[in-house]
Design a protein that fits this description.
mainly alpha, Arc Repressor Mutant, subunit A, two-stranded parallel sheet, 36% helix
Protein backbone atom coordinates (compact mmCIF):
# COMPACT_ATOMS: atom_id res chain seq x y z
CA UNK A 1 0.00 0.00 0.00
CA UNK A 2 2.74 2.49 0.96
CA UNK A 3 4.61 1.92 -2.34
CA UNK A 4 1.37 2.52 -4.28
CA UNK A 5 0.89 5.83 -2.47
CA UNK A 6 4.50 6.88 -3.07
CA UNK A 7 4.23 6.00 -6.76
CA UNK A 8 0.99 7.99 -7.04
CA UNK A 9 1.50 10.75 -4.47
CA UNK A 10 -1.19 12.96 -5.97
CA UNK A 11 -3.81 10.36 -4.99
CA UNK A 12 -2.71 10.47 -1.35
CA UNK A 13 -5.54 11.90 0.75
CA UNK A 14 -3.38 13.66 3.31
CA UNK A 15 -1.42 16.83 2.79
CA UNK A 16 -2.27 19.81 0.66
CA UNK A 17 -1.85 19.77 -3.12
CA UNK A 18 1.26 21.94 -2.64
CA UNK A 19 2.75 19.52 -0.10
CA UNK A 20 2.11 16.60 -2.45
CA UNK A 21 3.88 18.54 -5.24
CA UNK A 22 6.90 19.03 -2.98
CA UNK A 23 6.91 15.35 -1.99
CA UNK A 24 6.69 14.38 -5.65
CA UNK A 25 9.60 16.67 -6.52
CA UNK A 26 11.75 15.10 -3.81
CA UNK A 27 11.28 11.68 -5.42
CA UNK A 28 13.41 12.90 -8.33
CA UNK A 29 16.55 13.64 -6.28
CA UNK A 30 18.98 10.77 -6.94
CA UNK A 31 21.07 9.06 -4.28
CA UNK A 32 24.37 10.84 -3.80
CA UNK A 33 22.86 14.21 -4.73
CA UNK A 34 21.21 17.00 -2.76
CA UNK A 35 19.02 19.92 -3.72
CA UNK A 36 17.83 23.04 -1.95
CA UNK A 37 14.50 24.24 -0.63
CA UNK A 38 14.77 27.14 -3.07
CA UNK A 39 15.42 24.86 -6.04
CA UNK A 40 12.24 22.92 -5.28
CA UNK A 41 10.25 26.16 -4.93
CA UNK A 42 11.58 27.41 -8.26
CA UNK A 43 10.88 24.06 -9.94
CA UNK A 44 7.28 24.21 -8.72
CA UNK A 45 6.91 27.70 -10.22
CA UNK A 46 6.72 29.32 -6.79
CA UNK A 47 10.17 30.83 -6.18
CA UNK A 48 8.93 32.85 -3.21
CA UNK A 49 7.61 29.78 -1.40
CA UNK A 50 10.91 28.58 0.09
CA UNK A 51 9.55 28.47 3.66
CA UNK A 52 6.41 26.66 2.51
CA UNK A 53 8.64 24.11 0.80
CA UNK A 54 10.55 23.71 4.07
CA UNK A 55 7.31 23.10 5.91
CA UNK A 56 6.20 20.52 3.33
CA UNK A 57 9.58 18.79 3.49
CA UNK A 58 9.28 18.62 7.28
CA UNK A 59 5.83 17.08 7.01
CA UNK A 60 6.86 14.35 4.58
CA UNK A 61 5.11 11.21 5.88
CA UNK A 62 7.15 8.89 3.64
CA UNK A 63 10.72 9.47 4.80
CA UNK A 64 13.16 8.10 3.87
CA UNK A 65 11.47 6.51 0.83
CA UNK A 66 10.68 10.02 -0.36
CA UNK A 67 14.11 11.45 0.41
CA UNK A 68 13.60 14.67 2.33
CA UNK A 69 17.07 14.11 3.82
CA UNK A 70 18.45 15.14 0.40
CA UNK A 71 17.09 18.69 0.75
CA UNK A 72 19.54 21.17 2.27
CA UNK A 73 19.99 24.92 2.66
CA UNK A 74 21.26 27.03 -0.22
CA UNK A 75 24.63 27.47 1.51
CA UNK A 76 25.12 23.70 1.76
CA UNK A 77 24.11 23.63 5.42
CA UNK A 78 22.28 20.52 6.51
CA UNK A 79 19.16 22.29 7.76
CA UNK A 80 16.65 20.47 9.91
CA UNK A 81 15.28 16.94 9.90
CA UNK A 82 12.19 15.74 11.72
CA UNK A 83 12.81 12.00 11.51
CA UNK A 84 14.72 9.70 13.83
CA UNK A 85 17.23 11.60 15.91
CA UNK A 86 16.90 14.78 13.85
CA UNK A 87 19.95 16.21 12.11
CA UNK A 88 22.09 13.27 13.25
CA UNK A 89 19.82 10.90 11.31
CA UNK A 90 19.85 13.18 8.26
CA UNK A 91 23.65 13.21 8.21
CA UNK A 92 23.79 9.41 8.61
CA UNK A 93 21.38 8.92 5.69
CA UNK A 94 23.37 11.28 3.47
CA UNK A 95 26.67 9.60 4.36
CA UNK A 96 25.20 6.15 3.55
CA UNK A 97 24.48 7.54 0.08
CA UNK A 98 28.03 8.79 -0.39
CA UNK A 99 27.45 12.45 0.50
CA UNK A 100 30.28 13.86 2.57
CA UNK A 101 29.27 16.08 5.48
CA UNK A 102 31.49 18.01 7.87
CA UNK A 103 30.67 20.63 10.49
CA UNK A 104 27.01 20.59 9.47
CA UNK A 105 27.68 21.30 5.79
CA UNK A 106 27.66 19.22 2.63
CA UNK A 107 31.18 19.03 1.21
CA UNK A 108 31.59 19.60 -2.54
CA UNK A 109 28.07 21.01 -2.37
CA UNK A 110 28.03 22.57 -5.85
CA UNK A 111 29.36 19.37 -7.41
CA UNK A 112 26.55 17.17 -6.10
CA UNK A 113 23.73 19.71 -6.33
CA UNK A 114 20.74 18.29 -8.18
CA UNK A 115 19.11 20.83 -10.44
CA UNK A 116 15.60 20.49 -11.75
CA UNK A 117 16.29 22.51 -14.94
CA UNK A 118 16.03 19.45 -17.16
CA UNK A 119 12.78 18.36 -15.55
CA UNK A 120 9.38 19.73 -16.47
CA UNK A 121 6.87 20.09 -13.68
CA UNK A 122 3.29 19.43 -14.68
CA UNK A 123 0.57 20.22 -12.24
CA UNK A 124 -2.06 17.61 -11.58
CA UNK A 125 -5.63 18.36 -10.73
CA UNK A 126 -5.90 20.25 -7.46
CA UNK A 127 -2.36 21.58 -7.34
Amino acid sequence: MKKDIIDNIYKYEKGTPFQRSVWNAMKQIPKGKVTTYGAIAKYLGKPGAVRAVGTAVGRNPFAPEIPCHRVVRSDGGIGNYSGGEGVKTKIELLKKEGVEVSAGKVLAFRNILYRFEDQHFTRSAGS
